[in-house]
């Protein structure tokens, strides 16, 4: 009987000593209220953490007792941190609201030119044309061995 009671006491003490909690929550945009997909939640000063799912929810299992500081970050948003006290084997909820950072681009200019001397470009031009068009690419002229485009077209 004493051995059984002693075993139960050891199990209870070890459960209290090694109790680990779960922290869960939701990450949303402060201005729109939309969930932020793939936002990072880590313990401050470590690389341990998780990311939010498609609904902005996150879950961290196996959190040890004591006070922990969580840091939430997301691309183009200001990082937010908060501390939470873990007392035992419990499920705690901590939500984050992130604000967009104030950096914006003035304008983006994309410049490019179409490549028109390939066989694919010639076929594409023929397909888009409203009238019947006959064209030949520079590669076809080189393969045929003709000196001019007119000679290649006659062929």
Distinctive features:
155 residues; alpha/beta; four-stranded mixed β-sheet; four-stranded antiparallel β-sheet; 4 helices; 8 strands; elongated
- Tell me what portion of residues adopts beta-strand conformation: 25-35%
DSSP strand count = 8
User: What is the N-to-C order of secondary-structure elements (H for helix, E for strand)?
Assistant: HEEEEEEEEHHH
Assign a percent range to the helix content: 25-40%
**Overall pLDDT metric:** 82
Structural commentary:
This protein has 155 residues and is of the alpha/beta class. It has helices spanning 2-17, 119-128, 138-144, 149-154; strands spanning 20-29, 40-43, 49-51, 57-64, 66-73, 80-86, 91-93, 96-98. Strands 1, 4, 7 and 8 form a four-stranded mixed sheet that branches. Strand 5 (66-73) and strand 6 (80-86) form a beta hairpin. The chain is elongated. The mean pLDDT is 82.
Topology (SSEs and partners):
Layout: H1 2-17, E1 20-29, E2 40-43, E3 49-51, E4 57-64, E5 66-73, E6 80-86, E7 91-93, E8 96-98, H2 119-128, H3 138-144, H4 149-154
Parallel strand pairs: 1-7, 1-8
Antiparallel strand pairs: 1-4, 2-3, 2-5, 5-6
Summarize the entry for a quick read:
The protein has 155 residues and is α/β, with parallel strands linked by helices.
